[in-house]
Specification:
The chain is mainly beta and 452 residues long. The protein has helices spanning 22-32, 55-65, 219-225; strands at residues 68-70, 73-88, 103-118, 122-128, 131-135, 143-145, 147-155, 160-173, 181-196, 201-214, 230-244, 247-260, 269-282, 285-298, 307-321, 324-336, 345-358, 363-376, 390-403, 409-421, 433-444. It has an 18-stranded antiparallel β-barrel. The protein is globular, with a radius of gyration of 22 Å. The two termini are 33 Å apart.
């Protein structure tokens, strides 16, 4: 607790720790227990799979496919022009965070990923992928974003350990209740470990310490989104049972904390949770299920009145052949509110479906549709209770991906998102919103911003 919002917007190093000390800090964290951020402030629509589930294979492929070799070090360059788009945000609709009308925008970046295999089981990795954000009319929002990280990954037959430190200044939607993109900075230390204790049973722990800060140059935007500036910590650990290579079942407990910056709406809170999870993976079918039960209490002086309820997500993907896959998914997540002055937080529920199909050797079509509800917490901490506001959400999109020569990729698409203010008593900020985007991206190592 006691985190203070940084006054300077100047470029800097990771707060409170030099990069050379990152790994000792993470080791200390993981030996005590592990953490993972409890609040999911924004989840992109479309039902993308969790990258952590395929981390080992993805890392191995990234090392094998790296373009350059410098002794034992593997280097893989990346460059891209991404999200080159016309953003249609009609005045009086999606401009709740400021006077944002329709505009042209895009991102361009170049950088490098580096890998150092150590023996057959461990890999040190790093990336530096700075990115320039451009707007045609919103001149003040043009900027160069920092994106870099260090990581250590060890995978034995069943023992796995990963330690990472990252700074990401990303230009994106930062919350599901406001359809306005801006830049925010996220500094994160993460640790994850799975240790076998019996033939089919293992101990599992995961965690992160995440600091979020608004970097919008426009004063109105910055003051608006600064309401989300905070530090999130969470601690969890449990067991996993794997009767075979296709199935894992897990359960565990944890503790979470959120500490908001000085000078913003204080929603600081802490509490406990327990969870269960199920994973099933076969060549033609994948299933991911996570259920969490949370008991959160606001700190002294906080607006957060408490939350005793469930969150989680589910995803089922069917892959009958290499050229086609379809998925259904759903989630229920807690997020902090900045529109509704009467509600400290809301529950974001969403359900969707999508498919992708190969239209030829180098052509692939992606389609998704999603619907959901934002249920704001009442003064008693009940979603949608006591006349608290509610809103309906709707998203859909279509993308066409084209594989070009030498691993370059081109992607074009159309996405539309709507928020419809529904029933309940609004604190004055909730209203109808809509944003439409025609997007195009091209590059190598396009838009990942991660280790692989």
């Amino acid at each position: 607790m006691g985190w203070k919002r940084r006054e300077s917007r100047a470029e800097g190093t990771l707060p409170g720790v030099a990069m050379c000390a990152v790994f000792s800090t993470l080791t200390s964290l993981i030996l005590s227990t592990s953490a993972v951020a409890q609040v999911a402030q924004y989840t992109p629509p479309g039902g993308a799979a969790d990258e952590a589930l395929g981390r080992r294979k993805a890392l191995e492929k990234a090392v094998d496919d790296a373009r350059w070799h410098a002794g034992p070090v593997r280097l893989d360059p990346a460059f891209w022009i991404s999200d080159l788009s016309f953003v249609d945000s009609p005045k009086g609709s999606a401009n709740v965070a400021g006077d944002e009308r329709s505009d042209l925008t895009g991102r361009a970046g170049a950088g490098l990923r580096a890998y150092l295999p150590v023996g057959a089981k461990s890999t040190f990795a790093a990336y530096a992928l700075p990115e320039y954000v451009w707007w045609k009319n919103r001149v003040d929002e043009r900027r160069v974003n920092q994106r870099f990280g260090l990581g250590s990954f060890t995978f034995f037959n069943r023992l796995s350990i990963s330690l990472t430190a990252e700074r990401k200044e990303d230009f994106n939607y930062a919350t599901g209740e406001v359809l306005t993109r801006y830049t925010s900075r996220k500094d994160e230390l993460t640790a994850e470990i799975e240790v076998p204790i019996l033939r089919r049973l293992s101990l599992y722990a995961r965690g992160s310490d995440l600091t979020t800060e608004s970097l919008a140059h426009d004063r109105n935007l910055d003051e608006f989104f600064a309401g989300l500036d905070r530090e999130d910590r969470s601690y969890r650990g449990g067991v996993r049972y794997s009767p075979n290579e296709r199935v894992h079942i897990g359960a565990g407990v944890g503790h979470t904390e959120s500490d908001f910056a000085d000078g913003v709406r204080d929603r600081s809170n802490a509490g406990d949770l327990w969870y269960t999870e199920l994973g099933y993976e076969r060549p033609k079918l994948g299933v991911e299920l996570l259920y969490e039960r949370n008991d959160l209490t606001g700190d002294s002086g906080s607006e957060f009145t408490g939350f005793d309820g469930s969150t989680g997500n589910a995803r089922i993907e069917w892959r009958p052949r290499e050229t086609f896959s379809a998925r259904v998914y759903g989630s229920r997540k807690l997020a902090y509110a900045i529109l509704e002055s009467d509600s400290p937080a809301y529950i974001d529920e969403s359900f969707g479906a999508g498919f992708d199909v190969a239209l030829g050797w180098r052509l692939k079509l992606y389609v998704f549709g999603q619907t959901g509800t934002l249920s704001y917490l009442s003064t008693a901490g009940i979603p949608g209770g006591g006349g608290a506001a509610e809103a309906d959400t709707e998203s859909y999109g279509v993308d066409l991906a084209i594989e070009l020569v030498r691993k370059a990729n081109l992607r074009i698409g159309y996405h539309e998102r709507r928020i419809s203010a529904g029933s309940g008593e609004s604190g004055g900020g909730l209203r109808d919103q809509k944003v439409s985007e025609v997007l195009a991206s091209i590059g190598i190592g396009i838009g990942q911003g991660t280790f692989y």
